Amino acid sequence: MQEPFDVIIVGSGLSGINAAYHLQVACRSKSFVILESRDAIGGTWDLFRYPGIRSDSDMFTFGYPFRPWQSNAAIADGESIRTYIRETAEAYGVDRKIRFRHRVKSASWSSADALWIIDAERGAEREPVRFTCNFLFGCTGYYDYAGGYTPEFAGTGNFKGRIVHPQQWPKDLDYKEKRVVVIGSGATAVTIVPVLAQTAAHVTMLQRSPTYIVSRPTEDAFAKKLRRYLPTGIAYSIARWYNVLFALYFYNLSRRKPDAVKQWIVDQARAQLGAEYDVNTHFTPRYNPWDQRLCFAPDADFFNAITSGKADVVTDQIATFTETGIRLQSGRELKADIVVTATGLKLQLLGGIQIAVDGKPIRFSDTMNFKGVMFSDVPNLFGTLGYTNASWTLKSDLTSAYAARLINYMDRHGYAACTPRQRDASVTPEPLIDFSSGYIQRAIDQLPRQGSKKPWRLYQNYVRDLISLRFGAVNDGALEFSRRRNESKTAA
Fold it and tell me: What are 240-248's contacts with CB under 8 Å, separation 24+?
């Protein structure tokens, strides 16, 4: 049996609920369903349960534009975000469209029928189920939910304590009065350290190299003031645009004047830690700002944990684990009862779904990304890829709105399929993401490429994408439209 829908959304996280909202509002005649492999709404925010899990972007851009974030907190904890996503789904009725415990395994496109055939597994028994749809919308995030990345450290079998990865944080882990070493210096480590330090005997963040860490207030004073004088929706919109434009300004300033921005960030860390602290060793990265994501410390919590003596930072490399901790290449040994490997993620496009077009398997590394939304030579497939230099939701929302525009355009013109085609010989392929972070570099050869110019280039610029995706022509020269059963074909 094949259950037919016009659109199938894969994933009920932040992006999946966003996509469902836009379909429900803009494409009212279309039937759709959300297939969710887990048993709860929330995606990343339901999966990650490590201490202190929170947003690493402000909630006025991380929240949905159609449902204002009500709190004055600019940085929100994981539970608040889970609640926000769930309540948004309930408010717009899209929660009733979700099929939980449905893991999509493969999707095969038939050009003759202009349909995707979706094979999934249902429930713990992995019962095979099949669906068909005209459009497939991947809202699965960009990494592997099955497990994070942990390097192979020498001697881990000798360690008598416990080793955990934040992505699979054990519910029974008791770190009270324990010595904890957190390996890593990214957003996860910067989040976990101050929370563990509240009750652990001591916490050490062990890093190979420093990361840019910027303190910012948990509450947005500007948004709070706006709410005092303006209706909620207007205040939210102003606060949202203020944060969008400030983030763009700061990112572009970092690119134009990296040395000045670097000095400012390092000086901020020095002001938090004191003149005697070795900021040059522990808080001065070798790369420029925004070559990797910045880390935020709400209300300077990370710096406060260090100045309180409850936490410290060690910059060194691991030689081997021992029975009682970690021996470093410098010869120093860090004693530990618990080691947290905050060492990164494994990227996985579209949740690992096997994609085929007319029986030919698709290798996404051979494709080129179209406007950050579709993939060359793959019909009727949308994929949400958020920004690396701003909130994920900003691009997710533009992607969903564009997908709805494209579906409506095709309906008006009687088209059943739409395929991006890269025919411009002057467009050269480039890596999809210009980031030096380890989790990106480990998987960059498995990802689609971007092109050297539009519409194949990812500009990481919300204002530019807003103009292109919300107001630009759908029929822009790079899309090939066709009718069902190959009745006719039009290159737009």
Answer: 240/60, 240/61, 240/63, 240/65, 242/60, 243/58, 243/60, 243/61, 243/74, 244/61, 244/390, 244/394, 244/462, 244/463, 245/463, 247/61, 247/389, 247/390, 248/390, 248/461, 248/462, 248/463
State which H helix or E strand residue 305 sits in.
helix 301-307
CB 340 within 8 A of CB 153: no
Residue 427: other Cβ atoms inside 10 A: 19
Predicted structure pTM score:
0.93
Residue in this structure with the two tokens 């881990």, named with its chain if needed: 156
Helix H or strand E segment including 233: helix 232-256
Q: What is the pLDDT of residue 195?
A: 97
Distance CA 213, CA 285 (A): 10
In 281-421, which ranges are E strands? 295-298, 311-315, 318-321, 325-328, 333-335, 338-341, 354-357, 360-361, 369-370, 374-375, 381-383, 417-420
Instruction: Round to whole Å and give the CA distance between 106 and 211.
Output: 38
Are 465 and 248 contacting, i.e. CB atoms less than 8 angstroms apart?
no
For 59, the enclosing helix (H) or strand (E) is: helix 59-62
Residue corresponding to tokens 């803009």? 26
Do 312 and 204 contact (CB within 8 A), yes or no?
Answer: yes
First to last CA, the chain: 36
Q: Is 66 exposed, middle or buried (0-12, 13-18, 19+ CB in 10 A)?
A: middle
Q: How many residues are given for the chain?
A: 492
Q: Which residue has the tokens 């004047």?
A: 257
Burial class (CB in 10 A: 0-12, 13-18, 19+), 76: buried
Query: Three-state DSSP class for 124?
Result: coil
Helix (H, G, I), strand (E, B) or coil at 310: coil
Query: Could you give the CA distance from residue 212 to residue 391 in angstroms, rounded to a whole number?
Result: 18
**Residue closest to 251 by CA, chosen among 76, 18, 45, 464:** 464
Tens-place pLDDT, residues 303-340: 999 999 999 999 999 999 999 999 999 999 999 999 99
What is the per-residue pLDDT across 227-254, written as a single tens digit (0 to 9) for each? 889 998 899 999 999 999 999 999 999 9
- For residue 158, give the nearest of 318, 50, 313, 314 by alpha carbon: 318
158: helix, strand or coil: helix
Which among 305, 290, 222, 266 is positioned nearest to 440, based on CA atoms?
290
> How many of the other CB atoms lie within 10 Å of CB of 355?
22
Helix or strand holding residue 481 (H, E): strand 479-482
Q: Look up residue 77 and give its DSSP letter.
A: B
CA angle 380, 386, 389 (to 5 degrees): 150
